[in-house]
Amino acid sequence: MPKDNGAVKAPIANKHHPGEKLVPTHCSYCGMQCGMNLRVNTATNTIIGVEPRYDWPVTLGKMCPKGVTAYQQTNHGDRLMTPLIRDDRSLRGTKEGFRQASWEEAYDLIVRKFKSLQDSYGRDALSVFSGVSMTNEKCYLTGKFARVGLQTRYIDYNGRFCMSSAAAGFLRTFGIDRGSTLPWTDLNETDCLFIAGSNTAECHPTSMFRIWEVQNRGGYLIVVDPRETPIARRADVHLDLRPGTDLALANCMVNLLLAGGYADEAFIGAHTNGIEELAETVKLFTPEYTSEITGVAPEKLIRAAELYGKAPNAVVMFARGIEQQHKGSDNVSAYTNMCLVTGKIGRPKSGVATFTGQGNGQGGREHGQKADALPGYRKIANPKHVEDVARVWGIRPDEMPQPGVSAYEMFELMTNKTIRSLYLLCSNPAVSAPNLNEVRAALMSLDFMVCSDIYLSESAEFADVVLPSTTWSEDEGTVTNLEGRIIKINKAQEPVGQSKPDWLMQVELAERLGRGDYFRHLTSARAINDEFRLASKGGYADYFGATWEKIDRQQGVFWPCKDEKDPGTPHMFLDKTFYHPDGKAKLCALPYRPPAEEPCEQYPLRLTTGRVVYHYLSGNQTRRIPFLHAMCPEPFVEVHPETAAKYGIAHEELVRLHTRRGEARFKVKLTEAIRPDTVFVPYHFGHDDSVNLLTIAALDPMSRMPEFKACAAQIERIAMASQSSPAQTGGFR
Amino acid sequence: MKHYLYIEMDNCVGCRSCLAACTQCGGHDERNRNYVLDVNPFVDRQTIPLMCLHCIDPACARSCPAQAIQVTKEGAVLSALTEKCVGCQNCTIACPYGIPKFDRAQNLMYKCDLCYDRTKEGIPPMCASVCPTNTLQWLTEEEWKTKEQRHAIGQWSASRSPESPLEGETNVKISLPGILQGIQKLY
Amino acid sequence: MIVAVMMAGISQGSDKAAAIARGSVYGMTGCAACVVTALAVLRATGSWWFSLLLGLAVWFASGFALQAARSIAGCPLQDVRRASRERSRFRVTLITAGPPGVVVYYLQKRWKRGAVNMNRAFASRWARNVFAAVCALAALMYIGSRFFTHLDLALYGYMVGTVVFIGGFFYRFMAWAERPPTRILLRKGIRLIFRRSTPAVAADHLVVHRFIWNRGWYRWLQHILLGWGCILSAFVTFPLVFGWMYFTMADNGTYTVVGFGIDLLRVPADGWIAFLFYNALNITAFMVIGGVCMALYRRIRHKQALAEQSFAYDFLPLYLLLFISVTGLLLTFSNIFLHGFGHPVMSLVHQWAVILTLLYLPFGKLAHIPMRPLSVLARNYRDHYGQAEPKACKVCGTEFVSAEQSRDVVDVLKQNRLEFKTEEGAHLAELCLPCRRKYRMSRFTGIPTHQIRAKEANQDAKG
């Protein structure tokens, strides 16, 4: 029964229209995976709308504008209906030159090309770049397809631009990476929320009612963000730091917590390692020193530490703001230190959580799409792990390819011709990767590229073959949401046109590549789920007990879930045991490092990027939805009025923004809700509008995450030749 | 059971889910009827939703020459009856909140009807169903009473002068920004 | 009749409408008296003109009777509490003293209120208008039917029905026209009726219904079938009823259409025009049946319809029209296939169906038929004054409506005791819509949002 504001409410009925049925499922977009019912016309069997899913315990029927309009993707006019082949390679990088083809022709071409490239340049000439906006079953099979079907070591996924820092940080600190140590339904009952680098109101809006509830109950909200985002506006303390200086701020917090007597000595002693080194490292970060680095007033730092330290229960949360830095995994470990030194972890209503960005950002990184990982969060570097998985896959352990390289590094290998061909699915790196000029050049240099997508994305424009894939509503499977809860996506209609789910394409391709023996039995999403649960058995992320029936029965299953009887694990570390061999968590002592690129005379501004509430990732889906497009049709650059005055630029004026890597033109949006030394551009836009033309590819040494969130930039006025004329008022009638 | 649409303005983050969801109401012809406004656009990101407040004495209906705007027994002020609306647009000028929308091609006014197809069956309206921040809530009489007491004048309305921010009694209940002012902190 | 009136009350849902509904019961009582008298006299004497005259006389006389009836029952348009008190006193009198007591009670009341005099012979302007309209109709009949020589007495029921309809129509229309916004629009609109654009707008709104086309082809087709089916039927039926049009068949196989006593058209009896004339009502019946079926289907599928519809307001008129059309077709069926079997009964049923619908028409959904021309007036009113003097928003200066309409709305609201003043002293009806919304923000927060020169965010979402 949904619980809200402390009171148990009666279940809410749904509106049933005649001639329609409701298919309960979840949203296609972010890690919140809000529950929704798709309205399906029973005469035509097509999705025609959405109805809230009031009984979904995490979101209670709530949806953001993307969720409300998500259903419009399925029968959208831009859907790819047949495979496309481009014969004229000179047209790559454009939308032109594609012709419709049959699946047979497309498969034949792909198989011929792949085989000839592998014959000429070795098996590792092929690469797979995938994404995590798809079900666990697909993510799992993609990893298996790359390693068993294509037999290449080069597979990685867009989580490198999203979740990998959180994963690396948590693995280092806890020995396990589950995005949230507690279920989201705990959030509204905690007493203090410390949220760093998350524009929650725009990126995970359906968390907001729980966050506001903390304040409504008299609890505190502390927000760390260079911008006064909608959540920061109402925060009790807003730490408006300079982009890329989180590590200093986190160290300062730990320093103040230790110095202020808020440390839980017993917990530290019994359940952690490394306190001495940590205490020594953070001692440097006094409020005054930290203030110099971060630009946050010392009093605010002291107040924030005090509020967090005094709170009976508190949750530390963070998101891409701190993770998309070249010290992202350090930031994660550093903020997590706050929980560990105060002992506010391993119990209900307290803990640490990252706001997973992509729909299956959690599940997708656990099951072998990562360059170095195998299903169940196993490591290729670990021979025991390889053996376990090889057994399930029916290959010899020595047939398992070696670890590959991270997403951005794959593009570097394309440029130097180590990688000759790319099979891209469920991602749009031509918009979402950093330093796009290089990435686009890398894609151009490929000998052969296959792209599977639901629409002709910016990346598909570089492909030789484009395969029409299905939307989330045309297939079924499981997804793991940002809590670590495994949930079920249901099929609401048949695939449009000739589109096919990616798993089916891979099974059919494997057959033609002569690897059918390993894939032939996978005839449905359900069959893949059975194999994949088996493959994850015994791993850290153990899904073996999370059957589809159990998911339906108990509204999702939290992993680890080891067997049939195991109800799953909503709260992590309740027994205060962590996943390092000694059962203790590691307190990491992390010296401060500045952003890879600090402002200088030539580039005096700090450029940071982020999202708007109307768009999702590269915008390939959301930019096509009329409502979302109308609400935010083009990117903009947020500038503080003081800065604008200095450059003599006005609201809505077009300016040239440039860095050492590239330039783009944006309309100015004046707002005092940003630091004067910082400018912000949303990253959802393609081609010349993409801010990633400007961003830097400085990678985190552990997580290989690029530093999207901080680089040095300069604004330039453009002499306006043609000022857009004010709209003619046609009178009124 | 009597329910109220209740707007807790301070919660709004400007996501405009309510606008998108409005189109999903069965009776709404896939067009939204509500608004979300920036309060201080060059300064901060505060936004406030503006829905039809469903006046007890609706100026739109009073000004309609065709008697096309009906009030249901629950107090919902409906869109113009399609066969009666003559397209004079008096309602759009009369409404003190600027709510009714007008479709020139169809020569027809349309406005928030509190999702009458849902609310008459006891189902919350679309906007309040999806609102991710609990800015828009669908409250029972009892829940509303609790809210009203908690946000009594002096705490709740402290950010505004004591006179009413509305132009008359309405079926939709509101609380002004600044609701945290009266809240006792936990520690 | 009472059902019709009650429906109007229900469908309008406001006190005023309910009062009108109750009032029209009294009004219609007069009509009923008229009808009953006319029918009775006709049966007795067989002289239709005498019965009609007598019927009208009774109606006239009911002006007095109504005064008395209203004073006994307690005038429904007055304070409800008082009326109920009066009613209960009446009931007490009735029970305790019996009929003689009622007579005494009635006389008491009457003398207390002052005698009914000739000035009040017409209970209202309404009675006067109805009387005038009926007289005009009678005069037209007299002329049109070549001095009553070409009246089809088989159709007298329709005649009576029309007279009653006129009563109901005036009642409803006048109550409506007296509302301040309606009065203004009617007065100013009629003054502008000779604008050059009127014919085009009228054709657009009233003939081809383009605004309905813009709501969807289905609704348009449905409405064209229904609307024009009904209107064409009326154009055929009523001239026949009142003798304005009739047909003569000469021996040479030609067929003459006579309109208002003038030979309009001579067509071969087996030609296609004649065919259309013979079968006009059959064709329109099929149109109406098609339209009704489409409308009924829409009503069980369309979500907004499902949300708001009620039986009395939305379905009853459809069923009435369907019933008329089917019974009309059955008449034809009986003629062609059954050699007239059952024709008299069916004829009576059909006639009563038409009369019932006419009675219902001014009070239910069908009332929009006579009221729709107001949309032409509204367009003229907006166009004319908009060109003459546009109103600039008091805050941002954008022209958003005519100064005249802004003033009129302010007046109308004032008459309803609604006055919306801004802190700056303007009336809210003088602010454009975005500024009015922003002004509300300023009332909520104290920040002068309406003074900040930023474009209002896009507020339109299409699903």
Automatic annotation (TrEMBL), chain A:
Pfam families: Molybdop_Fe4S4, Molybdopterin, Molydop_binding
Domain 4Fe-4S Mo/W bis-MGD-type positions: 20-78
A GO cellular component entry from the record: membrane
Cofactor: Mo-bis(molybdopterin guanine dinucleotide)
Keywords assigned by UniProt, alphabetized: 4Fe-4S, Iron, Iron-sulfur, Metal-binding
Highest taxon of source: Bacteria
Statement: the UniProt record of this protein carries the keyword Protein transport: no
GO biological process, one term: respiratory electron transport chain
GO molecular function: 4 iron, 4 sulfur cluster binding; metal ion binding; molybdopterin cofactor binding; NADH dehydrogenase activity
Extent of the signal sequence: none
UniProt KW Iron-sulfur keyword: yes
PANTHER family (UniProt xref): NADH-QUINONE OXIDOREDUCTASE SUBUNIT G (PTHR43105:SF10), RESPIRATORY NITRATE REDUCTASE (PTHR43105)
Full protein name: Assimilatory nitrate reductase catalytic subunit
From TrEMBL, chain B:
GO molecular function: 4 iron, 4 sulfur cluster binding; metal ion binding
Keyword set, alphabetical order: 4Fe-4S, Iron, Iron-sulfur, Metal-binding
One family name in Pfam for this protein: Fer4_11
Domain 4Fe-4S ferredoxin-type: 3-33, 39-74, 76-105
PANTHER family (UniProt xref): PROTEIN NRFC (PTHR43177), PROTEIN NRFC HOMOLOG (PTHR43177:SF3)
Name used for this protein in its record: Fe-S-cluster-containing dehydrogenase component
Source species: Paenibacillus methanolicus
Lineage: Bacteria, Bacillati, Bacillota, Bacilli, Bacillales
TrEMBL record, chain C:
InterPro entries, sorted: NarG-like_sf
Keywords, in A-Z order: Membrane, Transmembrane, Transmembrane helix
Keyword Iron-sulfur (UniProt): no
Keyword Hydrolase appears in the UniProt entry: no
Annotated SUPFAM superfamilies: Respiratory nitrate reductase 1 gamma chain (SSF103501)
Protein name, per record: Uncharacterized protein DUF3147
Transmembrane segments: 20-42, 48-69, 90-106, 126-143, 155-173, 225-247, 272-297, 318-338, 344-363
